[in-house]
Amino acid sequence: MQQTANTKQVMFCLLICLLSAKLYASDNTDTIKVKWDSQESVSKTTPTLQLVENPAVRQSPIHEATFKALKNLGADYVRYVPWFPYPKLAVAELKPPSGGKTYWDFKLIDSTMVALMDATQGHSVVVNFSTTPVWMWKTKGVIKYPENPYQVMWDYNQGTELRDTTMKELADYYARLLSWYTKGGFTDELGQFHESGHFYKIPYWEVLNEVDFEHSLSPQLYTKMYDAIVTAMKKVSPDTKFIGLALAFEGSPRYFKYFLDSKNHKPGVPLEGISYHHYSLPSWREQPLDAYQYTFFEKADGFLDKVRYIEDIRKRLAPQTFTTINEIGTILGAETIPIPDDYWNLSGAMYAHMFLELTKIGIDVAGESQLVGYPTQFPDVSMINWKNGNPNARYWVLKLLIENFGPGDKLVTTADIGNANIDCQAVITKNGKRILLINKMNKDVPIVLPGGAKDGTARSVDTSTRENPPAEMQLTGGTITLKPFSVTVVTLK
Asked: Could you check whether the bond before residue 370 is cis, i.e. omega within 30 degrees of 0?
C-alpha cells in the first residue's frame, strides 16, 4: 500500500515536471525577442524572379495575365531566358549565311522581348539569350529543328566544340543580337543593315546558361567563350554589365576557381557578376507532401553551405564581383499532375527561407524560378496557374518580399526562438520596423511577438490564401498563429 502511494507520488511529480518543462519550452521556443538597437548586418539582397520563354508565355489564354502579373511585381533584376527547347523562339539566326544571303529573323523573338521590356519599364532586367545557333558547333550532321515554333525539341543543343575556334563567329552573333535591341539594328555578315527600331537600355546580360550542362563546357572553354562574347558586346553597349557561369549543378568549385581568377581571362575583360542555381527535390518521388517539408528545407540548407564556400572563393579571387543566385525553386521530380494545393505554399516558404539566408550571407540577387511553367514544361516551378492565369502562392510570397524588404535594410539581433521549424528576423527598413516569419511546417504554430507589435499589422501568404493576395490582419494582442507554410510580415507601429 505504501509502495503504491509512493509510486503515485513519484508519477505525480514526474507529471508536474513534464508540464513545467513543456510550459517553459513553449515560453522560450515561441517568443520572439528583438534588440532593435543592435544591428548585425545591412542587406544588399534583391528578391526577384526569372521568366523563361515558352508557348504559354507567348500565345495562350494566360499571355495577358502573365505580363500583367510581371508588371505588378515591380521587380528588379528580372531574368529573361529564351531557352533551347524552342529554337525558333530562342535563336535569331537558325541557318548560316549561304548563297549570298543571311537568315536573321526576329519576328517571333521580338514579341516576347518587347512584352518583357514593357512590363519591366522602370526596373532592371537581366537578358540571357542562352541558346547558340547549333550550326556554330561541330556535329555529326545537320541538326533539323521543328518548323512549328511551339513544338518542343530537347536535343537542339548538340556539339561540344565550336566550328570556329577563334570564336569570332560566336562573338559577332551576340554583338549583332545586342545591337538589334540597343542600337536600332545591325549590319550582317554580308554588309546588309537590318533595322529594328529598338533602343532599349539593357543593364545586365548573362552569358549562356547552365554551361556545366548545356554543351558540357569545361571551365577553360567557357571562359574563352565568355571573354570573346563580352569583348564584342562591350563595344556595342559599354554600360551593360555581364554575368558569367549560370551553373546548373549547384556550383562545382573548379568552375569558380578558374573563372574568378583574372589570370585566366584576357586583359581588360571585366568580372562583373557570377550566377548559379538551386532546386530542392524530394529524396524519393513517392514521398507524401508532409515529407517534402523536411527534404526541401534540408536540401536548401545543404546548398547554403555551398554558397558560403563559393563566397569564400569569390571574396579571395574577385571581391568586386557580385553574385546572383537566379534560379531558386522546388521540383517534385516528375510531371506530377495534379500537384497538391499546399505544395505551392511549401515551395513559397522554401524560397522565403532561401531569400532570408542569402540576405544574411550577403548575396546580391535571389531569383525565384519561374513565372510560367505547365505540364511538360516544369509545372512545379510555375508562379502562375497555367489554367486560369492566376498568380499562385509562390508569386504572392515573392511580391510580399519585394514590397517589404530589399537592399539597405538593417538586420537586427533577433534571438533564436528555439524552434528550428520557424524562421524569424527583425529588420529596420526604410519604411519602418518589420519582422519576417516563415513557418516551415504543415501545422499551425502560435508565436509570442515582441513588445510594440500588438498594435501593428500582419500580412500572410499561407494555405488559406491560395491564389489570393496576402491576408491582412490587425494585431490586437501579443501573439500570432502562423498557419501551415505561412510567410508573414509583421509591421510594427
From this structure: yes
Q: Which position has the grid cell 494555405? A: 463
Q: In the structure, what pLDDT confidence band is assigned to residue 334 with cuts at 50, 70 and 90? A: low
Cα gap 296→127, rounded to integer Å: 29
Cβ atoms of residues 352 and 397 within 8 Å: yes
Adjacency order of strands within the sheet including 471-474? 34-42, 410-414, 422-429, 432-439, 487-491, 457-461, 471-474
Confidence of residue 348 (pLDDT cuts 50, 70, 90): very high
Which pairing describes strands 241-247 and 204-206: parallel, antiparallel, or unpaired? parallel
Tell me how far apart the terminal alpha carbons of the chain are, to the nearest angstrom. Answer: 62
DSSP 8-state class, residue 153 = -
For residue 231, pLDDT over 70 is answered with yes
Q: Tell me the domain boundaries of the chain.
A: 32-41+412-491, 45-408
Quote the CA–CA distance of 461 and 392 in Å, as a whole number: 10
From CA 349, how far away is CA 398, in angstroms rounded? 10
In degrees and rounded to multiples of 5, residue 245 shows phi and psi of 80, -70
- Cell numbers for 457, please give them: 499589422
Peptide bond into 319 cis (omega under 30): no
The pLDDT of residue 283 is 81
Q: Can you tell me the distance from the alpha carbon of 172 to that of 167, in angstroms, rounded to the nearest whole number? A: 8
d(CA 34, CA 434): 11
Whole-angstrom Cα distance, residue 360 to residue 308? 11
CATH of the domain spanning 45-408:
3.20.20.80
The CATH homologous superfamily to which domain 32-41+412-491 belongs is Golgi alpha-mannosidase II (2.60.40.1180)
